[in-house]
Design a protein that fits this description.
By secondary structure, the protein is of the alpha/beta class. It is built from 15 helices and twelve strands. The protein folds into two domains: 250 residues, Aspartate Aminotransferase, domain 2; 135 residues, Aspartate Aminotransferase, domain 1 (Alpha-Beta Complex).
Length: 393
């Protein structure tokens, strides 16, 4: 890791490996296995592979390793393990370290699949999970126990954009020896340094901003070298959640423009959120950098900027929200985010539809809530598209 390089340089050059052909663009090593010169060499590699030695693509691959080293350098982590998807990263980070009798404390405002892992999967294997209001520090303190092994949270929640005081939660968790696992997707590695704020482990769905062009699934778990290689790697290499070499190559190409894209998208999101706030057809505009945001002061402390996603709560509920979505001409209805294309979704009927009405109400996911992921299109075109769709209601 070359710490003296700045972000954009790291995003282009960190982790680069070149073959004997001296290629400029990173090579895709599309291979399942690797050849050993002798039986003794195979034995030695299985006992202790070197930094540039590989055994099987499920364990590691040169293209995947370039991606792991590059994003670890960006995040300031010692190491990382790339996974097949963002949810494979969330599941791998949690399941690899937990066993029956352990206790986890989690914020309750989470993506639907994260809730499924915590509520349904971990409980099957004897792990108890306590959910708290992530913005209530007293609730975090009360929930901690001697057997609390981990806390889990989204730095900015999906889709209501709650901002959790990560530094304070980390101090509370570390007081009982718990590991702090953070999903930092909405904050992005450009605007948030979660490890510096006290997180022990950071996970990303690299499907989102890192790829950034709607092509491939991917995820990453970042942390200390000991945690990645002694806890995460044994679990993932035997359970099969590894990233493919082709997807890793796509992610490497995405990283070259990550800083440029996130900055442009954030500029547009900020402009649009400010322009729409106060519109009579909206109950509220949610965006972390708006002074009206409930955790505005926390967001200023924890993040350089507000991110690329905003949420609109449309008056009248689902009917008007659907009319709004159907009237959009530039923005696409889909359930991804962090894409170069602007994307909108209706969480109550898509990403969070499995929750009960009561659960959605507790989380603030109203029938009129629409999540808007801002892309790299012209910001004035996007604002006009949103306004004409509001007019269509």
């Amino acid at each position: 890791m070359t710490k003296e390089w700045n972000t954009r340089t790291k995003l282009v050059h960190e982790g680069t490996r070149r073959s004997q052909y001296g290629e400029v663009s990173e090579a895709i090593f599309l291979t399942q296995g690797f050849v050993y010169d002798t039986a003794e060499a195979a034995e030695a590699r299985f006992l202790q592979p070197g930094n540039d030695e590989f055994i099987y693509a499920r364990y590691g691959n040169p293209t995947v390793r370039m991606f792991e080293e590059r994003i670890a350098a960006l995040e300031g982590a010692e190491d990382g393990f790339a996974t097949a998807s963002g949810m494979a990263a969330v599941n791998g980070a949690l399941t690899s370290m937990l066993r029956a009798g352990d206790h986890v404390v989690s914020s309750r405002a989470l993506f639907g699949s994260c809730l499924y892992i915590l509520e349904d999967i971990l409980s099957r294997f004897g792990v108890e999970v306590t959910f708290v209001d992530g913005t209530d520090l007293d609730a975090w303190r009360t929930a901690m126990r001697p057997e609390t092994r981990a806390v889990f949270l989204e730095t900015i929640s999906n889709p209501t954009l709650e901002v959790i005081d990560l530094r304070a939660v980390a101090e509370i968790a570390h007081s009982v020896g718990a590991t702090v696992i953070v999903d930092n997707v909405f904050a992005t590695p450009i605007w948030s340094r979660a490890l510096e704020m006290g997180a022990d482990v950071v996970v990303y769905s690299t499907t989102k901003h890192v790829d950034g062009q709607g092509r491939c699934l991917g995820g990453i778990i970042l942390g200390t070298r000991e945690f990645i290689r002694k806890t995460v790697e044994p679990y993932l290499k035997h359970t099969g959640g590894a990233m493919s070499p082709f997807n890793a190559w796509v992610m490497l190409k995405g990283m070259e423009t990550l800083d440029l894209r996130v900055r442009a998208m954030t500029d547009s999101a900020t402009h649009i959120a400010s322009a729409l706030e106060g519109d009579s057809r909206l109950n509220r505009v949610l965006f972390p950098n708006l002074p009206s945001h409930p955790q505005y002061e926390v967001a200023k402390r924890l993040m350089k900027r507000g991110g690329t996603v905003l949420s609109l709560d449309i008056k009248g509920g689902q009917g008007p929200a659907f009319k709004f979505l159907n009237a959009l001409k530039i923005m696409t209805i889909s359930n991804n985010l962090g894409d170069a294309k602007s994307i909108v979704t209706h969480p109550a009927t898509t990403t969070h539809q499995r929750l009960s009405d009561e659960q959605r109400a507790i989380l603030g996911i109203t029938p009129g809530l629409v999540r808007v992921s801002i892309g790299i299109e012209d910001q004035d075109d996007l604002l006009h598209d949103l306004k004409q769709a509001l007019d269509a209601i």
